[in-house]
Amino acid sequence: MGLLQLLVVAVLASERRVAGAAEVFGNSSEGLIEFSVGKFRYFELNRPFPEEAVLHDISSNVTFLIFQIHSQYQNTTVSFSPTLLSNASETGTASGLVFILRPEQSTYTWYLGTSGIEPVQNMAILLSYSERDPIPGGCNLEFDLDIDPNIYLEYNFFETTIKFAPANLGYARGVDPPPCDAGMDQDSRWRLQYDVYQYFLPENDLTEELLLKQLQRMIGVPQVKANALKVVTLTANDKTSISFSSLLGQGVIYNVIVWDPFLNTSAAYVPAHTYACSFEAGEGSCASLGRVSSKVFFTLFALLGFFICFFGHRFWKTELFFIGFIIMGFFFYILITRLTPIKYDVHLILTAVAGSVGGMFLVAVWWRFGILSICMLCVGLVLGFLISSVTFFTPLGNLKIFHDDGVFWVTFSCIAILIPVVFMGCLRILNILTCGVIGSYSVVLAVGSYLSTSLSYITLNVLKRALNKDFHRAFTNVPFQTNDFIILAVWGMLAVSGITLQIRRERGRPFFPPHPYKLWKQERERRVTNILDPSYHIPPLRERLYGRLTQFKELFQKEQPAGERTPLLL
């Protein structure tokens, strides 16, 4: 019997240990959520508001706490009191509060909730800081909270902008905070610096589980520095607002670390995340990325580009149509987008029509005038445009000097013009290079309409800058992950194969075809003077058309009966 009692006690003890370990995962149905400093907590929030949260056993050397709660796209609210007040609560997908502790205080209570109908899966954590650490958002003058550690994020098709409140110097419990604008010397908050970090989630993954897991890498100062990319460092004199290029459907997490260079201490703001799209149903939602019109347009464009990549120099007129299509389509899309509010699908259709007209016009110019230099200038400028776009796609494009539109466009144009100038003495090589590089890149654009790839932003960033007057201030960092390496390898393979094939096939042949109009005139004169030529006896075009029309009319005429119509006389 004693052995049985021991077994029962052991089972009960093991159940308690399991329950304690599972405390990090759970829901808020009990009405009270207990937290520990530095430990992540997963739970669900349900209506009605609020649920009470509590932290016990706060260390005496902690002067303030930062609580933050994250969800994927549903809003949650964190508040100092059960009653929601604008200056005492924060609502969003990434919400945080700063808890300033009183002397001898070892327990803190606050409240959580959601106004949504469906339950919200959340991840939350508490971080502790000492009196030497700067206080994120401690000198807030723009937002509702007195001390606001949150990063406010806005996005549109072109750019994503983050804003945050300036920090203040740390101070001990029970001491008045340092004044924010009393002076600008080294003993004030003006000595603080702000490092802005950016972290990319894996491409083509919009799951909630992945986001909440990856957010753990952007919470504390050591994790942010180890995992994220530092984009820019701001001083207290700079504006606390930074813009980035929007990446549709790509998860990105932003955070700011405030650093006190005098004490060499740091603190992290509450990170914010975005996919540059909405999880709600409707146009532009994350679930409907990639319009059908874009897929059709870029697929047809890629088929033509693939043909040009391998056979463009041989089929010279087809290549000229391709080049004219690109030039006219690009400028026409910019024009109608800036001047008209019509929908994207209509934009794309009109762009395709205008591009086709531009392509036929360039072919007609070559056929009638046969000026090789004009055609090769267009070909070289298209290659120069792509090379210039690749140049600014690198970290060079994020230099502060190129945030000025004048400097950017002058430099961009010079690089684009330099390409046809450099290859002026070897036009065939220029033409074959353009066929291989531009034709293969059209395949990359087609892939980008089906899968998320950063390589499509090589030209899209230039288009955004031409369309939006505020895009010059945006940093154009993009992720470079497994998909991008594969597509880059395919792009390089197609380009090298197309260039090599055309160079070998065109060896020993004329550099370019002769003037079509001159050939046509010579052929026409030969037919007129040479009676033995069978084409000499072919009627003129007008007579041939009239004959065809007569034959077509006869199809609708009633057939006349054969034989005598009048009766025979006996």
Topology:
Layout: H1 2-21, E1 25-27, E2 32-35, E3 41-45, E4 51-55, E5 64-70, E6 76-79, E7 89-92, E8 94-100, E9 108-113, E10 120-129, E11 151-155, E12 159-164, E13 193-200, H2 208-215, H3 221-227, E14 229-235, E15 241-245, E16 252-260, E17 265-268, E18 272-274, H4 292-311, H5 316-339, H6 344-369, H7 372-393, H8 405-422, H9 427-448, H10 457-467, E19 474-475, H11 482-505, H12 516-529, H13 541-554
Parallel strand pairs: 1-3, 2-4, 15-19
Antiparallel strand pairs: 3-10, 4-9, 5-8, 5-10, 6-7, 6-9, 11-12, 12-15, 13-14, 13-16, 16-17, 16-18
Helix pairs in contact: 4-9, 5-6, 5-7, 7-8, 7-9, 7-10, 9-11
Structure summarized in a few sentences:
By secondary structure, this protein is of the alpha+beta class.
Termini separation comes to: 143 Å
* Cα gyration radius (Å): 35 Å
CATH architecture of the largest domain: Sandwich
Mean pLDDT: 87
Largest sheet: 5 strands, mixed
Count of structural domains: 2
- Tell me the β content: 15-25%
> What is the general shape?
elongated
CATH topology of the largest domain: Jelly Rolls
Count of DSSP strands: 19
| Uncertain runs | 1-23
* Fraction of residues in helix: 40-55%
Q: Can you identify the CATH class of the largest domain?
A: Mainly Beta
